[in-house]
Amino acid sequence: SQKIEQNSEALNIQEGKTATLTCNYTNYSPAYLQWYRQDPGRGPVFLLLIRENEKEKRKERLKVTFDTTLKQSLFHITASQPADSATYLCALGESFQKLVFGTGTRLLVSP
Amino acid sequence: SAVISQKPSRDICQRGTSLTIQCQVDSQVTMMFWYRQQPGQSLTLIATANQGSEATYESGFVIDKFPISRPNLTFSTLTVSNMSPEDSSIYLCSVAGDRETQYFGPGTRLLVL
């Protein structure tokens, strides 16, 4: 069966450290993968997109990797801040504008 | 980017009734989407709504239960019909952005008693 797995347990880290979130998938062949941030009571906000032929993408303190052999994406936030505390969702894109979301991982950054 | 608003932001409804959720965008967009996010679950696509054509529903969702209107390029509605407690969820609309990105509204929190 098709599955997208993100760590359901909250990730607790200290301010200044690097947060690494994982997205694993089974029985999908995504052409691209996206990461979104969702705060309580709000809709998801797009952060980064990476395509199947790209290994790594960066945007400011954010970095995402995409390994189609391992069927895994890693999302890194460097020099994390309490304001980075939120739920982070990965979304697989198998075709144009057709997204399948993971359940998200909650990140808590302590001062 | 696009700014999206939804009405109502939340509601409590009785079973057997229907609720219509509105989604307004500040610019003209071709593709709009309706998602459901149940507690502890991922976002699940209900349907894609393009202006001038019938909505395309995903597996497990039917038009009789979730009728959608798309009268113009800035507006859409989703109706949750004949509600039951299992319909309690957050309902989100989104629009297609540049490339494959999507911009989401704030969501409508629905509780069915």
Largest interface: A-B, 22 and 24 residues
N→C terminal distance of chain A:
41 Å
Query: What percentage of residues of chain B falls in helices of 4 or more residues?
Result: under 10%
Oligomer state equals heterodimer
Largest sheet of chain B: 7 strands, mixed
What would your notes on this structure say?
The complex is a heterodimer of chains A (111) and B (113). Chain A has 111 residues and is mainly beta. Chain A contains no helices and 11 strands. In chain A, the strands form 2 sheets. In chain A, strands 2, 4, 5, 9, 10 and 11 form a 6-stranded mixed beta sheet that branches. In chain A, strands 1-3-8-7-6 form a 5-stranded antiparallel beta sheet, with no helix packed on it. The radius of gyration of chain A is 13 Å and the shape is globular. The termini of chain A are far apart. The mean pLDDT of chain A is 94. With 113 residues, chain B is mostly beta strands. Chain B has strands at 4-7, 10-13, 19-25, 31-37, 43-50, 56-57, 68-72, 75-80, 89-96, 102-104, 108-112. In chain B, strands 2, 4, 5, 6, 9, 10 and 11 form a 7-stranded mixed beta sheet that branches. In chain B, β4 (31-37) and β5 form a beta hairpin. The radius of gyration of chain B is 13 Å and the shape is globular. The N and C termini of chain B lie far apart (37 Å). Chain A binds chain B through residues 4, 32, 34, 41-46, 49, 89, 91, 93, 96-104, and chain B through 4, 31, 33, 40-45, 48, 92, 94, 96-97, 99-107, 109.
For this entry, give a set of tags.
A: 111 residues; six-stranded mixed beta sheet; five-stranded antiparallel beta sheet; 11 strands; B: 113 residues; mainly beta; seven-stranded mixed beta sheet; four-stranded antiparallel beta sheet; globular
How are the SSEs placed, and which strands pair?
The complex is a heterodimer of chains A (111) and B (113).
Chain A: E1 3-6, E2 11-14, E3 19-26, E4 32-38, E5 45-51, E6 56-59, E7 62-67, E8 72-77, E9 86-95, E10 98-101, E11 105-110
Parallel strand pairs in A: 2-11
Antiparallel strand pairs in A: 1-3, 3-8, 4-5, 4-9, 6-7, 7-8, 9-10, 9-11
Chain B: E1 4-7, E2 10-13, E3 19-25, E4 31-37, E5 43-50, E6 56-57, E7 68-72, E8 75-80, E9 89-96, E10 102-104, E11 108-112
Parallel strand pairs in B: 2-11
Antiparallel strand pairs in B: 1-3, 3-8, 4-5, 4-9, 5-6, 7-8, 9-10, 9-11
